[in-house]
Write a structure and sequence with these properties.
Blueprint lengths: L9 H12 L6 H31 L8 H9 L5
Helix pairs in contact: 1-2
Length: 80
């Protein structure tokens, strides 16, 4: 595992140390790794969402949606 030194303002250092001492993390490194992991997951989710939005934009003109008919079909058990 690689080592990295990071400089933080005093108030951030205090916050990080408090989170590590709070019991959820065994040390500061565990807390920082969790933050990075969550950031990576967030970036992946954003990328996936952007891909879906682009796919929707490429799919053509919007079609009218009949909400009452949809609810009626669902209520009668005919699917979507």
């Amino acid at each position: 595992m690689a080592t990295m030194n990071v400089s933080l303002p005093d108030h951030m250092k205090t916050c990080v140390e408090a989170r590590a001492k709070g019991g959820q993390y065994s040390n500061v490194s565990d807390y920082v790794r969790d933050l990075i992991r969550k950031d990576l997951e967030r970036q992946q989710a954003i990328g996936e969402l952007q891909g879906m939005l682009e796919e929707g934009l490429r799919s053509g003109e919007p079609q009218a949606f009949d909400m009452a008919g949809f609810i009626d079909r669902k209520t009668r058990g005919l699917g979507g």
